[in-house]
Design goal:
The chain is built from 15 helices and 15 strands. It has 452 residues and is of the alpha/beta class. The longest helix has 23 residues.
Length: 452
């Protein structure tokens, strides 16, 4: 390394050509009108556009550039919206053809996030035939889900989502769930967790709803704003409270860690354990830095992040500048490194910083106890959660270090609490309790401990 090379430049040079782009082929278009959606109003960024639809020319251009830009053997495409199914099946059949055309020997994977209301046998066959990971947006049981996830006429969407999930089960399509935690369903943690397990979700994501709305909105401008826009804003009524969110996570964790480790996967629990043992957590909000998870609009416009689709974070268009050059712009690097460099001293001295790293910069709009800006709105809740889980994380980390399954924590807890341990026989298709990630029937079923 040259002696005069700046530290930030050194970090930049070390970054591999591996990054994530969330694709919005239908832009902000959606068949639902969820109250808390931060993306529907992005239409205002494109006032002249009536039909938000990615062209075939742009699709091919992006697929070629995205695959070529990666220096890793597996390349993952992520399709979101709005609602991506509005593009129609033919569009996504063409996606697979183009990925095969430009794969260059790399393995191609696809993740598809949908509200589930438009799924049918044809969609499910497409998912199965192409081994596509499906994520369903659902906020819990009917009263929780319908609180904010409504049609444009204000009607219920729950039954339509459940019919979509029935189609997935019918066609044997595995799916994950993403649940937005808001000021209402945050008070139904146990009910929500058990409901999501009941409908067949094996991997659960809980996304806290935190939005600020400008106090003096202008019709032609975005109303939901980012921290960069100053303090002339208030937290929306549907946003989750910090302490409420912390208690929500604690309630679910306490049930999961006693009964469901290695049977059901909750993203934030996995991420916390990864950070606890010093591994990469795998998601940007709990990583030390960010900047490698961008978003591309229907017309090829690239922005720094899905939560920062604002003019200030516009990087350029891939039809005018190569994707890899946009990703490596200095201001995008600065955006990512600022996640660490702009943490207030209060955060730097925090004893759970290892797990949080300040969470998402989008939520850093309150003051620290000593009056400094840049504290995360959810700080108090995260502190509650991370402090609560430490003894369990410590035990699971030691099990991993000794090459034993973290699921042993369940027996440890029961023994510690003087509970009688009753062996629970998993179903054939359940995840194996040994922690291998295989199905029970393909792993430990039939071994002596289960010959009962």
């Amino acid at each position: 390394m040259k002696p005069d090379l700046l530290f930030s430049d050194a970090l930049k040079l070390e970054r591999p050509n591996a990054f994530h782009v969330m694709l919005k082929p239908a832009g902000p278009s959606c068949n639902l009108n969820c109250t808390y959606c931060y993306y529907l109003e992005k239409r205002k960024l494109y006032p002249q556009v009536k039909d938000f639809r990615m062209s075939e020319e742009l699709l091919e251009n992006f697929i070629r550039q995205f695959i070529e830009a990666h220096q890793i053997p597996v390349v993952t495409f992520t399709w979101q919206g709005g609602e991506p199914t509005l593009m129609g099946l033919d569009f996504f059949r063409n996606v697979v053809k183009l990925q095969k055309k430009y794969s260059g020997g790399k393995n191609i994977e696809n993740a598809f996030q949908t509200n589930g209301t438009r799924l049918n046998d044809d969609w499910c066959k497409y998912f199965t035939d192409n081994n596509i990971l499906v994520g369903i947006s659902i906020d819990g049981a009917e009263h929780n889900h319908d609180r904010y996830r409504k049609t444009f006429s204000g009607g219920s969407t729950f039954e339509r989502v459940m019919k979509g999930i029935e189609m997935l089960h019918k066609n044997k399509v595995e799916f994950n769930t993403l649940s937005a935690v808001n000021n209402y369903n945050v008070h139904y943690a146990t009910e929500t967790y058990r409901f999501l397990k009941k409908i067949g979700s094996g991997f659960l994501q809980f996304l806290p709803v935190v939005e600020r709305i400008t106090i003096n909105p202008e019709d032609e401008k975005l109303k939901l704003i980012a921290p960069v826009h100053g303090n002339a804003a208030k937290v929306t009524e549907w946003s989750v409270g910090s302490k409420d969110f912390g208690q929500f996570l604690i309630t679910i964790f306490d049930e999961w860690v006693r009964n469901d480790v290695a049977r059901y996967y909750v993203q934030i629990f996995d991420v916390t354990l990864a950070n606890y043992v010093g591994e990469n957590p795998g998601i940007c909000v709990f990583n030390e830095t960010c900047g490698d998870a961008l978003v591309m609009e229907h017309n090829g416009d690239l922005y720094s992040c899905d939560h920062f689709v604002y003019p200030e974070y516009f990087l350029g268009n891939i039809l005018e500048m190569p994707l890899i050059d946009l990703v490596k712009l200095q201001r995008q690097f600065d955006f990512g490194i600022d996640k660490r460099n702009k943490l207030p001293r209060y955060c730097l001295q925090c004893d759970v910083r290892y797990a949080c790293h300040g969470e998402c910069p989008k939520h850093r709009f309150i003051l620290t106890p000593d009056g400094k800006p840049g504290l995360n709105y959810l700080c108090e809740g995260y502190k509650m959660f991370f402090k609560h889980v430490e003894p369990y994380m410590d035990y699971m980390a030691k099990e991993l270090k000794n090459k034993r399954p973290p699921a042993n924590v369940m027996s440890w807890i029961r023994n510690k609490e003087n509970q009688v341990i009753k062996p629970v026989m998993p179903e054939r298709n359940d995840p194996c309790p040994c922690g291998s990630v295989k199905k029970f029937k393909n792993c430990c079923m039939g071994k002596p401990m289960y010959n009962i």
